[in-house]
């Protein structure tokens, strides 16, 4: 009898934890990252594992924003400097950052379901953000690539630009790494 009660208690706790996890997943919609002084929101459903910025092998005859390839947990991944790809900075500075910058830099891999072995170099992780923490800004009417989503402002007045990694994974300019 005691075993049945213990099993019911365990099942009840698991059900509560699952419900809490579902609720948390709804409130945290984006991974906030910073690169070249810009704030970006990456949908959690598109983002994969996060790695420290470490050793990589440069690939000749590629665009400057394509840093090279790295072995990330046994898989070969292309490394892309996010700010360099978006045109916010010269990528040469990102390849040899200062020690303090390199310590904060991270590689955000694409979700394996997107079927692209790629990771984005970002200068800093800024935590998780939910829609309730951000106010949408009006669209400026300028043409944007398909991977650029809405623009938001947080409670401190900081601007954040949403980027869809699933759309980026299919973007022709992003896939064309030959320089």
From TrEMBL:
The domain of life is Bacteria
* Any Pfam family matching the protein: CheW
The CheW-like domain extends over 27-174
Name used for this protein in its record: Chemotaxis protein CheW
Q: From which source organism is this entry?
A: Caldimonas mangrovi
């Amino acid at each position: 009898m005691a075993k049945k009660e213990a099993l019911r208690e365990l099942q009840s706790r698991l059900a509560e934890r699952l419900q809490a996890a579902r609720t948390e997943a709804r409130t945290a919609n984006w991974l906030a990252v910073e690169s070249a002084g810009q704030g970006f929101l990456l949908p959690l459903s598109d983002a994969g594992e996060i790695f420290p910025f470490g050793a990589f092998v440069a690939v000749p005859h590629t665009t400057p924003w394509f840093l090279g390839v790295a072995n990330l947990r046994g898989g070969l991944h292309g490394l892309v400097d996010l700010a360099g790809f978006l045109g916010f900075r010269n990528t040469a500075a990102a390849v040899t950052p200062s020690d303090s910058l390199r310590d904060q830099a991270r590689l955000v891999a694409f979700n394996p379901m997107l079927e692209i072995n790629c990771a984005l170099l970002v200068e800093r992780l800024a935590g998780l953000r939910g829609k309730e923490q951000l106010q949408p800004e009006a669209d400026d009417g300028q043409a944007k690539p398909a991977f650029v989503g809405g623009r938001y402002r947080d409670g401190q007045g900081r601007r954040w630009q949403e980027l869809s990694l699933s759309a980026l994974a299919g973007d022709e300019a992003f896939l064309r790494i030959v320089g």
